[in-house]
């Protein structure tokens, strides 16, 4: 378990131009939980990662792992305590002149483990990440996804209780990303790790996260369980986690309505039920319906006859669907624009938007 309490990082503290990059960040990740942190470039994600594994000393606040405040430790205590947090970086920065097995062995060698125990542990770890047959290959002989799996094996070498993944799927192709994410959930479950998963890829969050925090200008501005967020029509983060392509425009005399599942009890045949009950045609203009861990969530735009909007909204509410028109009568805005704007707001800095 890792608890982060009022974590603050100010670069240039004491100078005339201090920059507060992390501003009183609070969160807790339990053992067996994956907490995803998402945010735009410059939000402070890398600084957060470096402060969590104490490569960077926070200006104030605490990083507490299994009850021990790592920020209170002196240099030698810290070296020891760092072992409790294993880190996988963006490009796992393996040593080019060492084989996969020798890379995984590195932390054990620094620790002074015996050759026999190191050999056994490395074999177990490479087996765990599905690379037992690649032990003697060098990094350039491995694919990007395989290198990241070696990175996980190395991060787990010292039996940490926290795994920190810092943009570890960036640059991986979809198949390698899949394998990496599956491995992450496997090690969470098998080893009971608390995982902090830092990323800018919203689709990876939906696949693995139990909880999600949105970092913006050094603050966690939104935080919640993934299943609550994706079912919340008012959550900015929830909308970004339900991305979809452009919706078609509503036809003449039709109104476009955004529909979001806001409970896990929405019947699968809700569209047929509403059409039958109201006796109107309902057209789907755009949709994203997914099931994650048995929870179906969806975000659609449908069109209904313009004089049936309020009847549709009321009937939808009875099926635990949130339905809202997204355009003023007669206007022809594209509801999909709102979705794109939401995702961009989360992943793009205000400065970049303004450019
Ligand atoms: N050593 C430093 N001294 C001063 N400012 C810094 C330092 N390191 C980072 N910053 C500033 O802190 C802010 C956050 O940077 P950080 O790299 O943590 O963001 P990020 O969210 O990881 O961005 P990206 O996704 O682009 O990597 C930036 O404005 C950056 O310029």
Structure keywords:
disordered C terminus, single chain, Rossmann fold, alpha/beta, 6-stranded mixed beta sheet, ATP-binding, Methionine ABC transporter ATP-binding protein, ABC_transporter-like_CS, elongated, Alpha-Beta Plaits, 2 domains, 355 residues, 4-stranded antiparallel beta sheet, binds adenosine-5'-triphosphate, 14 strands
Mind telling me the C-alpha Rg?
Answer: 24 Å
Highest CATH level, the class of the largest domain: Alpha Beta
Bound compounds, please? adenosine-5'-triphosphate
Q: According to CATH, what is the topology of the largest domain? A: Rossmann fold
- Give, in order, the helices and strands: EEEHEEHEHHHEHEHEEHHEHEEHEHH
Pfam families: ABC_tran
Protein name: Methionine ABC transporter ATP-binding protein
Keywords: Amino-acid transport, ATP-binding, Cell membrane, Membrane, Nucleotide-binding, Translocase, Transport
InterPro entries: AAA+_ATPase, ABC_transporter-like_ATP-bd, ABC_transporter-like_CS, ACT-like_dom_sf, MetN_ABC_transporter-like, P-loop_NTPase
What would you say this structure looks like, in words?
- It is a single chain.
- With 355 residues, the protein is α/β, with parallel strands linked by helices.
- The chain has helices spanning 45-52, 75-81, 100-111, 115-128, 144-156, 174-191, 202-208, 226-230, 236-240, 270-278, 309-318, 335-347, 350-354, and strands spanning 2-11, 19-29, 34-38, 60-65, 68-69, 85-88, 162-166, 194-199, 211-216, 219-225, 254-261, 283-292, 295-305, 321-325.
- The protein has a six-stranded mixed beta sheet, with helices on both faces.
- Helix 3 packs across helix 4 and helix 4 packs across helix 5.
- The site of adenosine-5'-triphosphate (ATP) has 11 residues, from strand 2 and helix 1.
